[in-house]
C-alpha cells in the first residue's frame, strides 16, 4: 500500500507563492539533494488544476537548465493525476484526469503508488479534509513575504505529530508530520 505525501516549500510566515519570480526560494546543495531524494520516493504526482497548469508550463522548459536538469527529468517523467472540476481529458504532460469520487479515486491510485502532492491550495485542502494525506512535508525557508496566499488559509483544525526535523546550512528546515490519530 502506498501513501499520499504533501510537500510544500513555504516561508516562515507560511507563504507558498512568491510575490515575483525573482523572490522564489533557493536551496543550498544539501537541501537540494534532500529535495531530490524526497522526490524519488514518489511513484506519481497528485495535483490540483492550478498547480498542474503552473508546473506543466515551467518544468518541461527546465530540462537543460544547469542544476535543474535532474529535477526536471524526474518530474517530467512521473505520471501525474489531476483533480479538477473544470478540465476535461485527455491531458498533456503525462497526466490523467481524476474522475469520479475523489476519495475513492485517490484510494485506488494509492493502492500501488506513493503519491506526491505538490501545492497547498484548494485541492490539497480537499485531500486533507477527506483524511487522504498520510504525511505533510514542509520545506520552511528563512524568508518572510508580505503578500501572497498562505499555506492552508482557512483550513483546520488538524493536529499533527512531528516525525522529523532536518535543518540545512541555508537555514531551510524540512519538517515532516503525520496526522495525529489520538
From TrEMBL:
Source taxonomy: Bacteria, Bacillati, Actinomycetota, Actinomycetes, Catenulisporales
GO molecular function, one term: 5-amino-6-(5-phosphoribosylamino)uracil reductase activity
SUPFAM superfamilies, alphabetized: Dihydrofolate reductase-like
Signal sequence residues: none
Residue ranges crossing the lipid bilayer per the database entry: none
Protein known as: Dihydrofolate reductase family protein
One BP annotation, GO: riboflavin biosynthetic process
InterPro entries documented for this protein: DHFR-like_dom_sf, RibDG_C
Domain spans labelled Bacterial bifunctional deaminase-reductase C-terminal: 3-173
Amino acid at each position: 500500500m502506498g501513501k499520499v505525501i504533501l510537500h510544500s516549500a513555504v516561508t516562515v510566515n507560511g507563504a507558498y507563492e512568491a510575490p515575483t519570480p525573482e523572490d522564489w526560494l533557493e536551496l543550498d546543495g544539501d537541501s537540494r539533494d534532500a529535495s531530490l531524494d524526497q522526490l524519488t520516493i514518489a511513484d506519481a504526482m497528485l495535483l490540483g488544476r492550478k498547480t498542474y497548469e503552473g508546473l506543466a508550463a515551467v518544468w518541461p522548459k527546465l530540462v537543460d537548465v544547469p542544476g535543474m536538469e535532474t529535477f526536471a527529468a524526474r518530474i517530467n517523467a512521473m505520471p501525474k493525476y489531476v483533480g479538477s472540476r473544470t478540465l476535461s481529458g485527455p491531458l498533456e504532460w503525462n497526466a490523467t484526469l481524476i474522475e469520479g469520487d475523489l476519495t475513492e479515486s485517490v484510494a485506488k491510485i494509492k493502492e500501488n503508488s506513493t503519491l506526491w502532492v505538490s501545492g497547498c491550495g484548494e485541492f490539497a485542502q480537499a485531500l486533507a479534509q477527506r483524511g487522504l494525506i498520510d504525511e505533510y512535508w514542509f520545506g520552511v525557508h528563512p524568508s518572510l513575504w508580505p503578500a501572497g496566499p498562505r499555506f492552508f488559509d482557512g483550513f483546520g483544525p488538524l493536529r499533527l505529530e512531528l516525525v522529523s526535523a532536518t535543518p540545512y546550512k541555508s537555514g531551510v528546515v524540512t519538517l515532516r508530520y503525520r496526522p495525529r490519530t489520538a
